[in-house]
Design a protein that fits this description.
heterodimer; A: mainly beta; seven-stranded mixed sheet; B: mainly beta
């Protein structure tokens, strides 16, 4: 049982490049989410999903796309990287009944630098 | 106004001290509340969920005040190993979102 895994751990991009941050969980959790964490800003929600085929925007969705084709995977795509997207990205998952939810379990994070 | 607000600190306290953090939330429909601990450059990890009746886990006590819309975390007999950032999180079922505060830094001094 690996929990929530994220790849890569570190990434450096040039402005305008695209890339996908991978996130997978093996706990059969319905709820998955992506956050970015910047100094002094806490964790800000980018996108979330309540099940395969269902995604929605969080607080800071601009510049990011997501899809959820399986319960296990929730990749985050940066279409055209900008220096403002330099951050630490965390993926998380949680059991979810449709009404209430339990705590989230976080992956180890991806440290992204955009030059 | 942010949905979830915390005093960023830092709180510098001596070993053995008692320290309390508060976290206010703006959405009265929020239904689930959590405290997480985050060590430097690591992922957040659940410290405790916060229940309406209050709950305790060893030296840690969490309280929820729905009328005033805040949650609190009390740490008794602080240890050096308690030094970390403490994040509160609020889940609102109608929005399906977990929203985090900015975190409060705690440094316990020898």
């Amino acid at each position: 049982n690996a929990g929530v895994t994220q790849t890569p751990k570190f990434q450096v991009l040039k402005t305008g490049q695209s890339m996908t941050l991978q996130c997978a969980q093996d706990m059969n959790h319905e709820y998955m989410s992506w956050y970015r964490q910047d100094p002094g800003m806490g964790l800000r929600l980018i996108h979330y999903s309540v099940g395969a085929g269902i995604t929605d925007q969080g607080e800071v969705p601009n510049g990011y796309n997501v899809s959820r084709s399986t319960t296990e995977d929730f990749p985050l795509r940066l279409l055209s990287a900008a220096p403002s997207q330099t951050s630490v990205y965390f993926c998380a998952s949680s059991p979810w009944t449709g009404v209430s939810t339990d705590t989230q379990y976080f992956g180890p994070g991806t440290r992204l630098t955009v030059l | 106004r942010k949905e979830v607000e915390q005093d960023p600190g830092p709180f510098n306290v001596p070993e053995g001290a008692t320290v309390a953090f508060n976290c206010t939330y703006s959405n009265s429909a929020s239904q689930s509340f959590f405290w997480y601990r985050q060590d430097c450059r690591k992922e957040p990890k659940l410290l405790m969920s916060v229940y309406s009746s209050g709950n305790e886990d060893g030296r840690f006590t969490a309280q929820l005040n729905r009328a005033s819309q805040y949650i609190s975390l009390l740490i008794r007999d602080s240890k050096l190993s308690d030094s970390a950032t403490y994040l509160c999180a609020v889940y609102t079922s109608g929005t399906y979102k977990y929203i985090f505060g900015t975190g409060t830094r705690l440094k316990v001094l020898a």
